Amino acid sequence: MSDEYLGPDLLARIRERAGRYDHDNDFFDEDLRDLVDAGYLAVHVPAGLGGGGASLRDLTRAQRSLAGAAPATALAVNMHHVWVAVANVVHARGEDFADEVLTGAAAGEIYAFGISEPGNDLMLFGSTSEADPDGEGGYRFSGTKIFTSLSPAWTRLGVFGTDASSPDAPKSVFAFLDREEVSADRVEILDDWDTLGQRASQSRTTILRRAHAPADRVIRRIDPGPSNDPLIFGIFACFEILLASVYTGIAERALTLAAEAAQRRTSRKNDGATLAADPDVRRRIASAGIRLDGVGQQIEALARDVDERADHGELWFPRLSALKWRATEVAREVVTASVQVAGGAAYRSEHELSRLYRDVLAGMFHPSSEDSAHAAMAGVLLGPLPR
Amino acid sequence: MSDEYLGPDLLARIRERAGRYDHDNDFFDEDLRDLVDAGYLAVHVPAGLGGGGASLRDLTRAQRSLAGAAPATALAVNMHHVWVAVANVVHARGEDFADEVLTGAAAGEIYAFGISEPGNDLMLFGSTSEADPDGEGGYRFSGTKIFTSLSPAWTRLGVFGTDASSPDAPKSVFAFLDREEVSADRVEILDDWDTLGQRASQSRTTILRRAHAPADRVIRRIDPGPSNDPLIFGIFACFEILLASVYTGIAERALTLAAEAAQRRTSRKNDGATLAADPDVRRRIASAGIRLDGVGQQIEALARDVDERADHGELWFPRLSALKWRATEVAREVVTASVQVAGGAAYRSEHELSRLYRDVLAGMFHPSSEDSAHAAMAGVLLGPLPR
Amino acid sequence: MSDEYLGPDLLARIRERAGRYDHDNDFFDEDLRDLVDAGYLAVHVPAGLGGGGASLRDLTRAQRSLAGAAPATALAVNMHHVWVAVANVVHARGEDFADEVLTGAAAGEIYAFGISEPGNDLMLFGSTSEADPDGEGGYRFSGTKIFTSLSPAWTRLGVFGTDASSPDAPKSVFAFLDREEVSADRVEILDDWDTLGQRASQSRTTILRRAHAPADRVIRRIDPGPSNDPLIFGIFACFEILLASVYTGIAERALTLAAEAAQRRTSRKNDGATLAADPDVRRRIASAGIRLDGVGQQIEALARDVDERADHGELWFPRLSALKWRATEVAREVVTASVQVAGGAAYRSEHELSRLYRDVLAGMFHPSSEDSAHAAMAGVLLGPLPR
Amino acid sequence: MSDEYLGPDLLARIRERAGRYDHDNDFFDEDLRDLVDAGYLAVHVPAGLGGGGASLRDLTRAQRSLAGAAPATALAVNMHHVWVAVANVVHARGEDFADEVLTGAAAGEIYAFGISEPGNDLMLFGSTSEADPDGEGGYRFSGTKIFTSLSPAWTRLGVFGTDASSPDAPKSVFAFLDREEVSADRVEILDDWDTLGQRASQSRTTILRRAHAPADRVIRRIDPGPSNDPLIFGIFACFEILLASVYTGIAERALTLAAEAAQRRTSRKNDGATLAADPDVRRRIASAGIRLDGVGQQIEALARDVDERADHGELWFPRLSALKWRATEVAREVVTASVQVAGGAAYRSEHELSRLYRDVLAGMFHPSSEDSAHAAMAGVLLGPLPR
Known about the structure:
The structure is a homotetramer.
Chain A: H1 8-24, H2 29-37, H3 56-69, H4 71-92, H5 99-106, E1 111-114, E2 130-133, E3 139-148, E4 156-163, E5 171-178, H6 180-183, E6 187-189, E7 204-213, E8 218-222, H7 230-264, H8 279-307, H9 316-342, H10 352-361, H11 370-382
Parallel strand pairs in A: 1-4
Antiparallel strand pairs in A: 2-3, 3-7, 4-5, 5-8, 6-7
Helix pairs in contact in A: 1-2, 1-3, 3-4, 3-7, 4-5, 4-7, 7-8, 7-9, 7-10, 8-9, 9-10, 9-11
């Protein structure tokens, strides 16, 4: 399993470290260095701007490969790629307000995603953080952000908050904070990441205490609530598609391990034949393969549609959220089926499948949730829910 | 619901007749005449050859619309379109042996599909019918074909049989029989179509008694068994994709009826609010919509891949058969969920949903079966089953 | 398939007639005569009162057998048995207000169920029919009842309506109407039963026009709304359990037909072996068998708990409604899987499985619905839904 | 959550320790001492023999409670209870060969289960361990046993091996080894238990090197292969039912935690209402509750049938293995749904649900597997698979 952007040697090195990072609850420093060296963080930056020129579809394939090697590494790097992809979407739709992400990524900046907040299920549609205007077009942000992957390493943290004081308030303000805000004690990164899986992502809690983004780092200021703003569409589309890719990559790896186990394990009941000859095992693997393949086709189709600027109208949002939901759900089922094929050995702590079983569960916690995906589709098919 | 090729008026007329054809167990004569008049049977013939120039992807959309109006009409016409699509696939891959189907369809010929045989689960990989060489490059076919849709109307019947007598035997021989073979009593069409659903398709049993295809109607002669011959690939790809489209169209119609019912029915329990405000009903419809939407994306992706000659290697066959399986399965589930939303009224004989519930079941009987789809995927993931 | 109360000959005769009744949309007159002659309508009346003395658990088994022979006959007779079972429940809990049903059934009366009303999802908790006091303890009922199985044959119709005029109004009033009310034109039975399945049940619409129940036919007068009244518990428990039995019996029959088909059909792909040797077919049948067996255990357990007066507290209602839901859902899945095993032949109109496929769908329309079963369980686990 | 045999204080103490045992990968010494002190290990010994007199049904309830407090403790203690229950089954069927387990358990012996062997999917039907006759009616056992729960604490290890040398060989020999065999170096317990979950069970690998069971510790000597011997039936029945109970108890606990979380968590999207008011959350919890409740009814029914010596004929084996399969499957689904309700907090290492998610997975590795449960049912419905 390799691809154009991540060679087999690099993936092998990354895979080799994954167990250790997980066990020690360490950030994937060495992986990150290797990925930076390989130019992977600029792979989706247009070639004209010094990047790799990969399409979003290309990127989804690379992220599936990377997730197959090290889920937490792929998940954390995903957040950087989301910002780059958003900037591409915005740029392709004729606006330049996010272009600095493209040039920044080409220049070596590492972007993190500071959007999620504790107990805030409005997600992109309304922040509980405060965005206080500095009077010169910049903002000071205060609040708590959770699940900040890449915490130890980001150089630019994308955040949003609510401007409640300007004459046209409320507005949702999106901006990038510099790493210097950490040294200046206006951004505190807690050392609180101790989870069942995805441990190397070190998606710690981030406290903002009047963290400052000057005017040239404020990229967007829009009304709260559902919106067709290109930034909102871009975040939504790229986040869902790339997240779907990461979890699909995890499941593809699990299925590979299952197929290997089936070809290795034998059955006394079946006179020593391998499990690859057992009809029930074949069926289980085929069923997992078919489901996974179906998700793969959907990722490819929707990524291509973003690349080609296809118009799905009001179906875009339910389609994207359903993709993420289906992908993470299928991934969980495929990992479980793979564990079943591999048998009791897969239950041992050192077995890769036992780690994948822990990692894959995180898929359900990222937005969009199963319920919001269904609500979005119901809204299109039946109109809004009367309150 | 309409599209480029089938206007709303035509679809409305066709929908209006569907219940009567079903009740009387009649063939859809008037529909067929209208479709011929609208040029629909040549819609997938290249424009250069006098056809409509629709891509396979375009055709899947039109067939979904048509199936939403009249499932049995769409299913039967599908068989004609499969042959045209096969001819396109073969032509696009640089061979001209099936070109006569393109010119024939442009000239008004109606093609039917005489492949299925009673109790023969080898399908395309080996016929139980006899193909006896006439010594001049033609063949005389003997055997029984089942599920011959369009029985009352075809002008060319595509058949295959096994040549067991030539020096290089066995060979699978594919050829087209002329309607004159019926008048000549070498082809007998039984009047035996009385089924739960898809009644208007009149997919009767066809008996071949040394039915003659002269040399210029024999299009292919290949080894039995799995094969990458462009004819086999073409039949497989076009049959599965177009069949998936028909059943998806049925389910889309059911979901539309369900949504309409939800907006009309009220609940005393909920103080007279419509069911469109009931969270359980919204969820049921959203779930159906999400599943259907996922299948739709897969149909579009694979149809486009056929149009663009994408290379899926050994995954082509499992992908195509899985698509057909998933589409017919999802269609059945969506129709059932739609019936549930519509309530007891949908159980009445005259209700469109009670007909769709009968029609949609047929999806499981067409090849590829659920089991062969899984066997194909297992073969790719685990290698062939040792015998 | 037979049991203590219904011999194999009787069941065979009933099975033989089922196709004809279905095709002609006729009521099951001859079946009913045979069942009456066999004492089957008094089978659940205590022996001391001249009945068969069968327990509710015994009755569920007999109804499964009967449903396996003729679903519509079993479904319609079920309604009579529900009333008898309710009377047993009430009697066993120390009240005699429903005893007349026991003596009536022993004396040859045939009871029907006039509860369901169009668009009324409150079900037992509030009638849209009017119950007007006659000043002597009796009532005159006006309103519309739907799905009145046994319409051509009942001698006593159990109804309920709302007394909105008495000083202590509103009250739900339960009473039995005599067949004479039909001749007196105060009860009209429409000839409007033309459905997808369960056709022989002739569950027609019944119009009440001040239909009179004298005081001695009024059995209960209670507050509308959820209630632990023994009548409400009895109707709920017996209706759900017996309905679950009918649909389980349908599915058991389907599975038997599937197993027979598997033992008869052969596969060319598998060198002529029967499908009973095909691992996928074995799995499909086993899976159906396991699901069905699980439902059977639940029917037995809950019927026994009613017989033994076990106390499930507030779990009684969710348990009973979940049983009915699961049973009808599993039945539908098992019939579908059986059709799949039997193959294309099962799609022909004259095949028993094509009838079972139509009959089994009705399960979802009887109360309790899937949604109310879930709402009941949510209420127990999370408390009532805040309004 | 408590019951007759395990008071709330005891369960609370046990629950409190569970996280620590899991984290430190320690055996549940203190729990075991408490349970012994409470008489819990003799609870299923007949009162007449000095035990608690609990029925198997009572025991399933107690084990569900215990598993809800500490899954690994319950799972390990389960193995002891299986032997006691087997002895009860055998005794109740008129044989006394296993009575020593009843008196032993009453006297404080702790029984462990040394049946599973690496790569041996024949399970009870044929051991890969050698049972060498000592000439005096005793045996010397050699081989490897895996998943020996209670490794640090058992005083009697039930094992089986194949006698391949006696004149009537081969025979399966069942016997109990004394703890002294460990000191005598004829039984070695590896320190190799480091798994994803069920960590406190310390189900280590056991190596037998001519471990000696004298004649009075050999309880049974039978032909290998499927068998209706009361010992085989007893092991099968008690193992499956009690295992089902443990995993059901885990899931019941998860659902309780989910319901608590739903009543605590609020939604900004829904104006601060708790998730207990969210229809999707209610449905998710109701669905979990309904599935779990169904399994509970099956456990009760089958345990009662064992207690009452009901005769299920050839359905006994598929019923029992299906129960175990369904219970562990439903448990896994319910835990996953509970995690989903509890949200991201449940993904933290210290959250009880993240431990239950790891523990519950083990259910699929115990016999009977999903596949053998289905094979057993297929065997009954279709006859044996032709070889």
